[in-house]
């Protein structure tokens, strides 16, 4: 390039050569440099600075982020970075790591933890757990059970059972003139004994045994024969009712649970009154196995019984005490409950926990109930929610789904105001997603397979209803029947026995505390106390007792009043020996001192009074 600069002829020749060289080099390397920089003095300054910039420098990487190589450490800088500059850089790196997840519903979740603040009102427990005021005066196991199965409920059963028995007996008498039957009315003592025998049968795990086996003396269970006749027990099973069958059809049009609605309502009221739960509640379902004809019977293949009646329960997570329940009746014509615009499952959970809202409790549910909508509704009434959630929910972002490239025991947290989601990988290609309004951080327990605190809390509180159902099935009093109201009644007895056991052990914590089979001992004593009044009344009529009944009473520790007839008397009436054949027709005046039957000398032996007292013990 030709220079437009004017050359001074007075300058030396070598100066002109150097000036021309510098002009050419500057034009080649910096085309965008202004013409003012072509001054000779500026050219020397520019050349000096270029030489200095070619000196080697040291580049130090930030140990917190290996990809950040923009920090250049020169000879003039110090070894330590200024604190203000480091804090600013760390904040920028942290902001760059925050991610935003968007779900299909349009809801946005962030991986940034919410700021620490005071404990939320929904997480502050305002009630102390323990037995209710009605249970403070309990002295015996029978009283604890009668808190749940009250005398009013038994009176209802007595009234409707007698009504049904009279109706059936009258129909029989009209169809069979000359063979009229008379119904002997039942009473509350007999119904209590009936319930006690059902409980004792459950303790012996004899729900699949026939009544002949239960009333047999061979199996060493004399309590059944000593309490009630087998035919009487069978006829009570047949005629047992809980409502007026004459008005049932009209009530069934509005309520599918009409045959047991009154009994069920009284039972739930007593459950809520006798116990105050702790801070954790569990909502889940129970299936009562039955194959009887019922228009709201459910099929759940994952349950052992598969077919049966489904009840949604709210239980205390710590003591498995049943607090509230609702029977699934299918689609009803009229919706019942709060928030009709919300989903039916949300309304169901809110109805179950309604008595304990605004008290700072936490509800644990499985993926059938959990949703973000339910969590927000419960937060509005100062109640927390923890539970697994289904992966196909619209509120779940795609980043939380299972991914074959995610390592095992890894977790992804995301937050939206007071709701926390966590996705945990217990094994390859599988992810468990949980929702919580109780936890608001990324706490992880490194000692337990790196599980988040949300999962540990869920595992600790999720089994309230399942454990109650397990206790019910262990010693169930259920008998084989095709009538679903009776199946429902048997389950009420079992659940009431579980609730009574919880109340009794809280009231008396030292009762058999070192024994592992405390509940079995509780049920044995409960059944014995329930039949006691009926056995005492039956014992007062020894003349009408059969020999087997007397032996059964003696086997359970009861003594019968036996009048020992004289061995010989001039005014005694002769009677035929019952141990001889009828052809002999041998009549004697001697009687057995134990069973009072007439017997001849060939069939009795003479013993002294001392030996007779030992023999009759």
Automatic annotation (TrEMBL):
Keywords: Membrane, Transmembrane, Transmembrane helix
Protein name, per record: PiggyBac transposable element-derived protein domain-containing protein
Record InterPro entries: PGBD
Comp. bias (Basic and acidic residues): 81-92
Domain PiggyBac transposable element-derived protein: 143-500
Organism whose genome encodes this protein: Rotaria magnacalcarata
Residue numbers spanned by region Disordered: 1-98
Pfam families named among the record's database cross-references: DDE_Tnp_1_7 (PF13843)
Residue spans crossing the bilayer: 484-506
Biased composition (Acidic residues): 20-40
């Amino acid at each position: 390039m030709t220079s437009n600069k004017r050359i001074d002829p007075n300058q030396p020749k070598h100066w002109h050569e150097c000036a021309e060289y510098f002009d050419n080099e500057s034009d080649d390397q910096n085309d965008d440099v202004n013409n003012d920089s072509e001054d000779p003095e500026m050219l020397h300054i520019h050349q000096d600075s270029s030489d200095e910039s070619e000196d080697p420098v040291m580049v130090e990487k930030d140990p917190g982020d290996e990809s950040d190589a923009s920090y250049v450490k020169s000879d003039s800088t110090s070894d330590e970075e200024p604190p203000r500059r480091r804090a600013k850089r760390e904040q920028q790196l942290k902001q760059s790591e925050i991610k935003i997840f968007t779900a299909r519903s349009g809801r946005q979740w962030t991986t940034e933890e919410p700021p620490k603040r005071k404990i939320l009102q929904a997480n502050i427990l305002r009630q102390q757990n323990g037995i209710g005021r009605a249970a403070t005066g309990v002295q015996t196991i029978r009283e604890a059970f009668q808190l749940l199965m009250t005398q009013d409920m038994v009176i209802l059963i007595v009234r409707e059972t007698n009504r049904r028995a009279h109706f059936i007996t009258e129909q029989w008498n009209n169809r069979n003139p000359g063979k009229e039957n008379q119904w002997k009315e039942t009473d509350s003592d007999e119904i209590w004994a009936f319930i006690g025998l059902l409980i004792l049968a459950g303790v012996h795990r004899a729900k699949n045994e026939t009544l002949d086996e239960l009333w047999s003396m061979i199996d060493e269970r004399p309590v059944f024969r000593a309490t009630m006749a087998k035919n009487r027990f069978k006829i009570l099973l047949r005629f047992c009712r809980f409502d007026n069958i004459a008005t049932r059809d009209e009530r069934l049009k509005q309520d599918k649970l009409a045959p047991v609605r009154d009994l069920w309502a009284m039972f739930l009221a007593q459950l809520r009154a006798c116990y105050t739960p702790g801070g954790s509640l569990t909502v889940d379902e129970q299936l009562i196995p039955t194959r009887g004809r019922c228009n709201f019977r459910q099929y759940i293949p994952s349950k052992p019984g598969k077919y049966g009646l489904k009840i949604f329960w709210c239980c205390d997570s710590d003591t498995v005490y049943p607090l509230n329940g609702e029977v699934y009746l299918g689609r009803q014509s009229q919706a019942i409950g709060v928030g009709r615009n919300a989903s039916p499952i949300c309304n169901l959970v809110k109805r179950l926990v309604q008595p304990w809202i605004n008290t700072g409790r936490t509800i644990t549910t499985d993926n059938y109930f959990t949703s973000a909508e339910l969590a927000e509704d419960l937060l509005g009434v100062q109640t927390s929610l923890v539970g697994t959630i289904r992966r196909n929910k619209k509120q779940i972002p795609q980043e939380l789904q299972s991914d074959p490239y995610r390592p095992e025991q890894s977790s992804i947290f995301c937050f939206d105001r007071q709701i926390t989601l966590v996705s945990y990988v217990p094994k390859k290609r599988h992810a468990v997603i949980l929702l919580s309004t109780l936890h608001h951080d990324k706490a992880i327990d490194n000692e337990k397979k790196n599980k988040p605190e949300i999962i540990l809390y869920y595992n600790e509180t999720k089994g309230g209803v399942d454990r109650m159902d397990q206790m019910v099935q262990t010693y169930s009093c259920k008998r084989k029947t095709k009538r679903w109201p009776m199946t429902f009644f048997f389950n009420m007895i079992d659940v009431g026995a579980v609730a009574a056991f919880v109340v009794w052990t809280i009231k008396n914590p030292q009762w058999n505390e070192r024994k592992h089979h405390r509940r079995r001992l509780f049920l044995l004593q409960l059944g014995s106390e329930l039949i006691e009044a009926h056995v005492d009344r039956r014992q007062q009529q020894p003349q009408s007792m059969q020999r087997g009944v007397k032996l059964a009473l003696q086997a359970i520790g009861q003594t019968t009043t036996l009048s020992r007839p004289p061995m010989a008397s001039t005014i005694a009436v002769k009677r035929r020996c019952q141990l001889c054949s009828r052809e002999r027709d041998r009549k004697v005046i001697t009687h057995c001192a134990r069973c009072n039957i007439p017997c001849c000398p060939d069939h009795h032996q003479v013993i002294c009074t001392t030996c007779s007292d030992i023999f009759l013990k």
